[in-house]
Structures are given as structure tokens and as C-alpha cells.
Amino acid sequence: MSEIAMPRPVLDRLPARRPKTARTLGIIGGGQLAKMLALPAAQFGCDIVILERNDHSPAANLAKETVIGDWDNPDSLLRLGSLADVVTLENEFVSADSLAALEEFGHQLRPSSATMRIVQDKLLQKHALANAGLPVPRFVAAPDRQSVLTAAETLGWPLVLKKRRNGYDGKGNFTLHSPADLNEAWARLGGGANPLFVEEFCPFTSELAMMITRAHDGATACYPLVETVQRDHVCVLVKAPAGVPEEIARSAGDIARQAVETMRMVGTMGVEMFLTRDGKILVNELAPRVHNSGHYTIEGCVCSQFENHVRAVLGWPLGSPALRAPAAAMVNLLGSCAGPGAPIGIENAQAVPGAHIHIYGKTTSGKGRKMGHVTALGDTLDAAVATAQKAAQMIRFGNDA
């Protein structure tokens, strides 16, 4: 651990632990996921401390304190750890080496740096899943352009070239239809500077996901299998439960549970899967955190993915993941262009019966940026989707709003 060992003067600069009357949860990151984690934590009487690069993040107004610093700086992480009983994350982009500094100096980190080390590197993640016998698309490392061309001899065209780290919402992926696409893809993904891997193209019929919360003792709360609908690589709609045959839902659930167990996850994890044309389930990616495909659980389930994550990382019993109604839907609110982050038309959306509106409080909007979401419950999936979409269509973000 010499690369992350902290010099003794750093420890001398850390603030002394102050007397506390409540449990304190430290969250690395202050975005909308941290905000939605802070709400159930506060409900249980917890204090929240976040680590962010600025003091105006979405979660800042719910935090007792914001530590301003770099996520990858062990000094900043140790400052956060000194103020918290348990530290968790809202994203998978923090270096596992830096996270290990928290554990080295006795702070509780959940999920662990060992879990994060595997999951945050998508090539290591795929190897771990495959070694556990779980179904994944075929893949190989791509250290250079020639390795991609060699892979195509076995995997065929098209291929998907991916960043091993820090890719999300389609950022970090490029579909290659022939060798002619390789130079553009390599340049766009920063090949050489960024480690890449290549994966066979999967012609799926639908994209499925399941949120699972795993406690420290191995107990799990498994949420319903959902279908996610993407536009321009960004999720626009989540439908719960997924409209698939019971046998497929059962198979997907078994695969998702095994994936979470394989990673020794503590907290809530998202398991994204493909349903292929021949009815097979393939694991696409894992997210070692609360996830966009589980936002419907706030109103839709007895205990949300956020509340169960808080329960798991603090060592408390897990709550029920059961749906409160036969169906639930979630529609993402996306920015239309660059501009202010304040919503336009929210008062019209508030008048839609059964619509639950969440605005994240981001200071600026951007094209395709997730600015909020709308959830609705219904006796049927069509009814839930219609309510959520009706309200969502009334809210806009950006200068052209």
C-alpha cells in the first residue's frame, strides 16, 4: 500500500472527532444520488457529511457539513472519514487505491475498496462475472488497435469498444461496424491514455435491471425486475415490473443475486442485463451504488433503494422491497440545452393526480443532463406510465424552455 500510505503530518491536520448524539453517514459525492440517500438517513436521525469539489452540490443543503476536496485525494477522504461513522459512495469513479486509505486508517467504508476495485474496472468486472459462471457477452482486452481487429476474427462485426473505467450513459462506448470505424473510436475514447476492452455486440430485445441491497451479513432485499427504455444512451423510462414471462424474470433474478454476491457488495447495487432474441439473459454492467433504474422505489416500494442502502451500510435490518401497487413507472427529466437549472412548468406538473415530482437542484442544465424524475403508481403499467409521462412533459430545463 506504499502508493497510498499517508504521511504522518496529514493525520495531524485532520479535525478531531467531535462529540455526537447521532450516527453520521459520510457520502463521497454530493449529486442527486447523495441527496436521495441523505433524505432517509435524516429520517433515521443521522447526520450527513459529504465530500465534494464545491459547496453548491444538490446534497449540500441536506448535509451537516461539506468537505471541499478531490475524491481521489486520500487527504480529503481521510478528512471525511474523521467526521463519519461510516463512509459510502454515490458513484464508482473514485480510485480504489485512494479508498483503501480510509480502511487502512480504520474507517468503515461500505462498499469496500476491494469491491470497488473490481466493479469500477469493467474488464475486471466482466472477468469476475464470467469466472462465477454468469452469462456475459464475450469480451477481450484491447491494449492496441490490432487487438480489436484480432478480436473481430472471433467475435465478428459489429463490436463495442469500451472504456474500462469512468463510462456511463453511453459515454465511454463506441459501436464499431467495420475496421473503418476503428481510428475514430480509438481517438474518441482516448485509446492509449485510457485502458479499453472490446465486447461482442448483443442484439437484445429489451434492457432489464434489478436493484438488490445486500447487508453485511449477506441478507438481501431484491427489488422487482424492471425494463429500462433508453434514448441516445440515456434512460428515459423505467417500467416496474418488467413485462416478461415469469420464467425469464426468475432467471434474471437468480443471475442478479449471484452477481451481487460475487462482488461481496454491501449496500445497494444495480444489475443491468440484456434480454436476447432467443430468451437468454446476459449481464451488461454492474453499478456499485443506488441507481437511476431504482428511483421508482421511493414511492413505489415499501422501503426504497436509498433507505435500504442506508440501512445496509449502517448495519441495520433491511426493509421490504415489495411494490406498493401493481405497477410503477419512472420518467427521467432531462435538460434540453445549456441554461439555468430551475424547472419551468413544475406548477402544471404538480396538478397531475398521482404524479410524484423530484427536482435534483442542479445549478445548471445541459442537453441530456438528468435534472429530476417523475414517478407514478398504477393498477396497470400503462396507467402508471401515462401519469408519469403526462407530468414529465410539462417540465422543461434550459434556455430554450
Descriptive account of the structure:
The model is unreliable at 1-21 (pLDDT under 50). By secondary structure, this protein is α+β, with helices and mostly antiparallel strands. The chain has helices at 8-13, 32-43, 74-83, 96-104, 113-119, 122-131, 145-155, 182-188, 246-262, 297-300, 305-313, 346-350, 381-392; strands spanning 24-28, 47-52, 65-68, 86-89, 108-109, 139-141, 159-163, 173-176, 196-200, 204-214, 220-222, 226-231, 234-240, 267-276, 281-287, 327-334, 339-340, 355-359, 364-365, 370-378. The chain has 13 helices and 20 strands. The radius of gyration is 21 Å and the shape is globular. Helix content is 30%, strand content 27%.
Largest sheet: 9 strands, antiparallel
Low-pLDDT parts are 1-21
Q: Tell me, what's the shape?
A: globular
Structural class category: alpha+beta
- Bin the strand percentage: 25-35%
Q: What distance separates the N and C termini?
A: 51 Å
Number of strands: 20
Q: Please compute the radius of gyration using only Cα atoms.
A: 21 Å
- Tally of helical segments: 13
- Average residue-wise pLDDT: 93
Residue share in helix: 25-40%
List keywords for this structure.
single chain; alpha+beta; five-stranded parallel beta sheet; globular
